[in-house]
Amino acid sequence: MPLNAPRIVMKFGGTSVADLDRIRNVAKTVKKQVEAGCEVTVVVSAMSGVTNQLVGYCESLNPLFDPCEYDSIVATGEQVTSGLLAIALQTLGVKSRSWAGWQIPILTDDAHSKARIKSIDSSKLIECMQSGVVPVVAGFQGVDDNGRVATLGRGGSDTSAVALAASMQATRCDIYTDVDGIYTTDPRIVKKAKRISAIAYEEMLELASVGAKVLQTRSVELAMKEQVRVQVLSSFDDNPAPMENSLPGSLVVSEDEIMEKEQVTGIAYSLNEAKVVIKDIPDHPGIAASVFAPLARENVNVDMIVQSSGSNQKTDMTFTVPKTDLLNVQKILEREREHIGFAEMLADDDVVKISVIGIGMRSHTGVANTMFKTLAERSINVQVISTSEIKVSVLVAAEYVELAVRALHTAYGLDAQ
Amino acid sequence: MPLNAPRIVMKFGGTSVADLDRIRNVAKTVKKQVEAGCEVTVVVSAMSGVTNQLVGYCESLNPLFDPCEYDSIVATGEQVTSGLLAIALQTLGVKSRSWAGWQIPILTDDAHSKARIKSIDSSKLIECMQSGVVPVVAGFQGVDDNGRVATLGRGGSDTSAVALAASMQATRCDIYTDVDGIYTTDPRIVKKAKRISAIAYEEMLELASVGAKVLQTRSVELAMKEQVRVQVLSSFDDNPAPMENSLPGSLVVSEDEIMEKEQVTGIAYSLNEAKVVIKDIPDHPGIAASVFAPLARENVNVDMIVQSSGSNQKTDMTFTVPKTDLLNVQKILEREREHIGFAEMLADDDVVKISVIGIGMRSHTGVANTMFKTLAERSINVQVISTSEIKVSVLVAAEYVELAVRALHTAYGLDAQ
C-alpha cells in the first residue's frame, strides 16, 4: 500500500446487492478500487426486499412493536449482506471480513428504529484495511450504550457510510445506487436532463427534499457538517475504477469546490403537495399563529405560505401541506373555525410544486423573473410563490408538471447538447 | 416471584417457530409457564427453511466459504426469531427481550461453523428473569475471543439450551419439538410404540446415534456431563403447563432417577449402514490395523466389526461403514489390496442395523438371546452382531426392517395396551 493511498468508503444500496449475481458484481467493483491502490471500506444495505419482509413480520405480530426488538430483527438484513459480500470478495482473491455495527463499534443514542450515531471508533477498521483486509460493514445500524442493536431509520446505510468516511477521514464516500448520478431534473420527464458533475451540499438538500430520491437527506446533512466529499455512482455501469480526474458520477461537495457556479443547477418537482385556502379571516396581529399553531401541535408540516390582503380588515391565507395530511388538516381547521373566524376553506390537491435550485442565484439576479416569464409564456398560472436564498418555488396546477419542468429546463440552459 | 421458583429453560425448534402463527402459539406456551410461577428463559432456533436458505447463499458464492462469514450470516436466523418471539410475548402482556449470543455472552472456541461453548456468563439473564422479564435467547450461537460470531453446528440450539440450563442451574431444560417425546421405537413402523416417560442419558445417546432424531447428540452428552434434566415435549400439543407431577413428554435424566429399569427401553434401526466383507486375509497379528488404519486416516467411521476364523491361516473380516462412505471405502481398500493381502472384497448396502437398548440389560440376562430367538422364529438371518453394556445390535437384510422391529417390540413387552 503506497503512502497516502486514497482512502475510500464505498456504499452499495439494496438493489445493488439484490441477489448473488449482483453481489458478485459489487465484489468486482470493489476489487478494481483495491487494485487501483485505494484503502477501501465497504458499507452495504440489506438485499432488496429483505428489510420489508422483516418489518412486515414485526407489524403483523404487533403494529405497536417494541422498537428495540424491531432493530435487532431488521439489522440482520445488512449483516447477511456484509457476510455474503466478504465471501464474494475472498472468492476473487481479495482478503475481506464483515463487521456488524456492534463489532466496530458504531455507538448510537437509544432512539430505537431512528437512532442517531453518537460516535464511531474506526480504529479497528483502519487496522483491518492497513493489514490488507477489506472491511465490509453492515450499514443502517449501531449499538446503544446498553449493548442493544439500534438502526438509523430507512435509508440509514447512506448515513452509516458518510459517518464512517468522516470518522476515518476518507478521501471520498462513494454511494453506489441504481442511477448513475444526480440529474438536472427527472430524466423521465426531460429526455435532455444532464448528469450534474458537481453539486453543493445545500443544493443537494433542496433537490432531495423536493423530490430527488438518490441520497438520504440525513446523510447529506452529515456530509455537509463533516465536509465529506460524496460521489453518487451507478453500480450497474461497468465503470472503470473512478479516479479523481474522470469521475463518472455526481460529486456532492462544498460550494468552494465548485468552480463554475451555474445560475440554476437543477429543477425539482413534488406532486406530494396540497393547497389550502382560508378566506376572509379577520386581519389582526396573531392571526397566522391561530391558524398554524393547531397544525404544528399535530405535527403537520406546512410549507409554502402566502397571505394576501383583502378588503374590510379581512385577509386570505394560502398554504401547502403534504397531500397525505390534507384530510386531517381540514378536520383540524374546521374544529378551529370559530376561534380563527374564517368564512370559507378551499382545498386543492391537484397541484405540483416546482422549484429551481442553485447556489449561483446568490450572485445572479433575474432567476425568479426568468421563471415567471417562462411560465407566463405557456399560460401557466402561478398560484403560490416561495423563495429562499438558493431556491424559487411555485405552485401550479398538476396538469402542467411536464410542460413547466421542460420549459424551465430549457430556459435555464440546462438541456444536454 | 416466590422463593425457590422453578427455573426452566424452554427451547423451541425450527418447525415450532416456522411462521408467525406458530410463534404466537409458542408465546402462549411460554406465558403458561410464567403464570405457573416459573422463572423462564427461552431459546429459539431459526424459522424452518431460513438456515437452509442462508447456507445455500454461502455455498453458491463459494463451496469453500470462510466459516467465520458463514457463522455471522447463518446466526441471523435465530436473531430474527428471538426478536419476533419477544414481540409476541410482549403482545400477550409478558415482559420480554431478545438476547443474541454475543450480548450474554456465550463464549465459544474459534472452530467456526462447529464451535464448542467454552463458558456462559448467565448473570445478565438471571438478572433479567428476576426483574420479571423473559429472556429469549438466539440459539445455535456464541461469540469467540475475537468478538466474532460463532455457531455450534446444525441442531446446535439444543446444545445452547442445555448449556444455558447448566449455567443457570435450571430445574429443567424443556425441548419443544414436532414430536411429543421419545418413543420405544419408530411409530411409523410400530403403531403400538409407546412414549417413554423417562430415559437415561446413556440410553438416549444410543437411541439418537442409531436413528432417533429428537435431540442433538452433543446436547445429550452435555446434559449427562452437567446433570441437566431434559424434557422432550411437543410444541403442537395444547398441553397444560407441564408440572413435575404429570409431565406430558419424555424426561432424559440420570439413571438414578429412573425407578423402573426395563430390560429394554427402546428399539432403534438405521438404514444408513453398508456392509463390507474382506475374504481370505493372511491371519497374522496386526492385520486388523492394516485394514482399519487407512480408513481412519480418511475419517471413515467403522462401526460393527467381526472377524471369523477361516482355514489355512486365512481369515475373513466383516464390518459396517456409513452408506455414504461405501464407494470411498471400496476405493481405499482396493488401493491397499496388496498391502493387506486379501483375495476378495464384497460390499452390500442393502442392510439394516437393528439395536435393542436398555440400561436394565446390565442386571438382566438373556436380552441378547431373546433377540436371536425372535429373529430366528421369523427366519431372519443375522449377518453381524455387536454388543455393548446397554445395547445389542444386529445387521440383517434391509427387507426385514419392519418385520424385525415389530417382532422385537412385542417380544420385549414394549407394545402399548
List keywords for this structure.
globular; four-stranded antiparallel β-sheet; Carbamate kinase; 417 residues; 25% strand; VC0802-like; alpha/beta; 20 strands; 2 domains; 13 helices; homodimer
Kindly describe this structure.
Two copies of one chain form a homodimer. With 417 residues, the first copy, chain A, is an alpha/beta fold. The first copy, chain A, has two domains: 7-255, Carbamate kinase; 261-417, VC0802-like. Helices cover 33% and strands 25% of the residues of chain A. In chain A, a hairpin with an 8-residue loop joins strand 4 (106-108) and strand 5 (117-120). In chain A, helix 1 packs across helix 4, helix 6 packs parallel to helix 8 (217-226) and helix 7 runs antiparallel to helix 8. Chain A binds chain B through residues 20, 23-24, 54, 57-58, 60-62, 65-66, 68-70, 72-73, 76, 79-80, 82-84, 86-88, 90-91, 97-98, 100, 102-103, 147-149, and chain B through 20, 23-24, 54, 57-58, 60-62, 65-66, 68-70, 72-73, 76, 79-80, 82-84, 86-88, 90-91, 97-98, 100, 102-103, 147-149.
